[in-house]
Amino acid sequence: MTLLGQFALWAAFVLGLWCVVLSFSSRWQGRPDLSATVVRSVFAITGCLLVASLSLWKGLISHDFNMEYVAAYTSRNLPNAYIFSAFWAGQKGSLLFWAVVLSLFASAAQLLTPRRFAYLMPYVAGVTAAVITFFVSVMIFAADPFERLVFTPADGRGLNPQLQNVGMVIHPPMLYLGYISLTIPFAFAMAALLSRRLDTGWIHAIRKWTLVSWLFLAIGITLGMWWAYVELGWGGYWAWDPVENASLLPWLTMTAFLHSVMIQEKRGMLKRWNFSLVIGTFLLSIFGTFITRSGVIASVHSFTQSNVGYFFLAFLVIVAVLSFTLLYTRWGLLEADVRLESVVSREAAFLFNNLLLVGIAFSVLWGTLFPILSELVRGTKITVGVPFFNRVNVPLGLLLLALTGVGPLIAWRKASTSNLKRQFIAPVACGLMTLAVLLAIGVRDFYATVALALAGFVAGTIVQEFYRGVRARRRMHGESIPLAFARLIGRNRRRYGGYIVHVAVLIYFVAFAGMAFKREQEATLKPGDSVEMSSPFGHTYSFTHMGISQYEALNRIVSAATVEVTKDGRSLGLMTSEKRQHVDSFKRPTFEPSTEVGIRSGLQEDVYIVFAGAVNGTEEAVYRFNINPLVWWVWAGGFVLALGGILTMWPGGGPTSSAPRRVQAGYEVTLVGAGKD
Amino acid sequence: MNRNRPELSRRHFLLSAVGLQAPQDSLSGRGATGTLRDPGVVGRPRQPTAVRGDEAEIKALEQRLACSCGCTLDVFTCRTTDFTCTYSPELHREVLALRDEGRTAQQILDAFVEKYGEKALMAPKPEGLINLTGYLLPGGLIAAAAAGLILFITRRKAAVAAASAVAASASPVGAHASPEELERLRRALADLED
């Protein structure tokens, strides 16, 4: 199978080069008849990469330990689901995964894009084929997933214990899907620039793709937070690790694009900015891959250090130079149709929103690279950890939250004073009431208080928008409240789906603010010993160590420490936290022992127990107990965000034929000859 | 119904079905009472955690110190998480020793910087040109860009208003045109149409 896999990779490489040359030459030589060949080349590349992928999976499933990749990431006793996910667990497999998914997306783009955008498709095929060819070339020349060993080990090393988690079966593919699908909007942007068709056509063509990328990235990031929380055992879900940051960067710029593209659609403004955002987002996705794979920045998440990173660095520089040069050559053709009329307008609010989102992305990038810059300039190594990122980014995040509430309240073009008063009074009252309640109950943490008060303001804005929409429908159509609510969302999915995403954002912020109040305590307990902790919500938890039991499971020896937990004297039951020593099928240890935390999740707070170790081979256990407030709401926020995103991109949603468009308020149109029949 | 049959929960059944969990077997035998049968599989041996009066201060202090094992976490989080790290327990002992010498939190931080360099801190000190640039540049750039944007929009608005006013004043048909002037204009236009 390795020969077949390698052959398929070479075939994909040659076809990729062919497709790139053909796609551009067919346009420049005026040979539109070659366009069909270009598109078929994309399908052929996809076929080759599917064959290569199946070859790798075949090797994994059949335990072909003569394959270096199979021996490095699986073992005979690895559960089936992880043998399947081992495909993307390592550097080489993940590159193949990236290439095959990108080829599938490229094919989908060719098949699903409406025919009215046919003039863009050969270029789209060329750009996507170029990116695929790059990934395939990295595999062929630097990271061959089909490399054979000179001997065949009796068993493989197995998968890193921290990757043996359901979260790691779904989190990396989600994130990869987000990263990879960013190539499609980039390809359309390049196609528009190359073809000089710079109207809003390319934007309409990529609308669904941008939402898909953004949604996959968001789900991938949230799942990554969940994995870090349940698997890494340090008690939190976000540590501003460079690899975490790398996933956040393109999401921030894509969020900015999703807002600014509305300005271009409605007012014909920000054309250059939108091209820049799409190019920048794609470059950030490649940058993230470079960080993950080069080892230039220390991270607990990164792949093994290798020279693959430098391929990505070179690709990043080449793509940046080519794409921005192309944009520069079309600069004059991208004049705005109209100008901004007022600072107090929806357009300006969107501009400031973009400024903040891109500013936060810059800030995260700056913090991630600052250790390298500092060492270059001063020759001094520094650590840039959580305190730095919190100090720099939390105020910016709060400003962004405030704008999430402000944006929908301001009218397009220019807002009048009376309009502002009418729109702001209820949301501001909500924010102030929240603030008063927080102060009254004794909340004093500055940033958490501001975040929660702003969340109140944003909630007020969203509720007001829905309330007014429902009221208008009830007046016009006499619908019941639930029907009016459902139709309000159904008829304008983009707008109200967007508001649901705003709800998710405020849920995230509330949950993040909750972690300012987390409690943690270390304790060493003999069987029968107890320790008590009070929670930020005023509950008293008691933890009684019951003992440590040891048993064998499929591919590990487990030492499980059991704790009886009570809350305000009421039993919550038993919780266990484990130490796992993974072994191969010959019972030989494969990795250092790993920790499995015990978590009991609730709406108010999570009980989080970490079994840190046993004292000198006895059942006396060292624990860390955490009470983490509002963590459940992070996952709830992710769910709401996914819901809003799906709703936004769901097909249809315009007014039905039975509900004809009404004349815009304030204008009356009389058709010539109307009423004479 | 056979009550002796071991119960299999729905969750365990589903996990077994997808191969994520296999039936568990207890290790045969146990060690002496209160000891583990196989201490070698529980990670590195731990020492009992000493309960100190200044525990909260120690924790706060260690959260400002970076572990040097490459985990990117602070000393407190790393040592209580046990990434099988041998650095953070050692750094913890250093903190306790310095504390027992009667040093203040700042003196302990300074001692760490002196011994391990600035990378011992979780965040660089906000002093010196480079570090201050690190802290202030993102916010400063955003503020400058926002100010520039407001200035740009305001000036453009003023320029557009001024241009409109000029255009209005240069209009051939003023609001104060006399009837004779209007009649002359009408005749001139009629000549042009002919």
Uncertain regions spanning at least 5 consecutive residues of chain A:
655-677
CATH topology grouping of the domain at 52-123 in chain B: Helicase, Ruva Protein, domain 3
Helix content of chain B: 40-55%
Largest sheet features of chain B: none
Instruction: Name the average pLDDT of chain B.
Output: 78
Beta strands of chain A, count = 9
What would the average pLDDT of chain A be, to the nearest integer?
89
Assign the structural class of chain B, choosing from mainly alpha, mainly beta, alpha/beta, alpha+beta, or little secondary structure.
mainly alpha
CATH class of the domain at 52-123 in chain B: Mainly Alpha
Q: What is the distance, rounded to the nearest whole angstrom, between the alpha carbons of the first and last residues of chain B?
A: 111 Å
Beta strands of chain B, count: 1
Q: Helix segment count of chain A?
A: 19
Please identify the oligomeric state. Answer: heterodimer
Strand order of the largest sheet of chain A: 2-3-4-5-6
What is the number of domains of chain A? Answer: 4
User: What's the gyration radius of chain A in Å?
Assistant: 28 Å
What would your notes on this structure say?
The complex is a heterodimer of chains A (677) and B (194). By secondary structure, chain A is of the alpha+beta class. Helix content of chain A is 60%, strand content 11%. Chain A has four domains: 1-164, no CATH class; 166-411, no CATH class; 412-516 and 633-649, no CATH class; 519-632, Tick-borne Encephalitis virus Glycoprotein, domain 1 (Sandwich), CATH 2.60.98. Chain A contains 19 helices and nine strands. Chain A has a five-stranded antiparallel beta sheet. In chain A, strands 1-9-8-7 form a four-stranded antiparallel beta sheet, with no helix packed on it. In chain A, helix 13 packs antiparallel against helix 14. Among the domains of chain B are: 52-123, Helicase, Ruva Protein, domain 3, CATH 1.10.8; 126-164. The model of chain B is unreliable at 1-6 (pLDDT under 50). The chains are: A alpha+beta (677), B mainly alpha (194). The interface between A and B is large, with 84 and 68 residues. Strand 3 (540-553) of chain A pairs antiparallel with strand 1 of chain B, so a sheet runs across the interface.
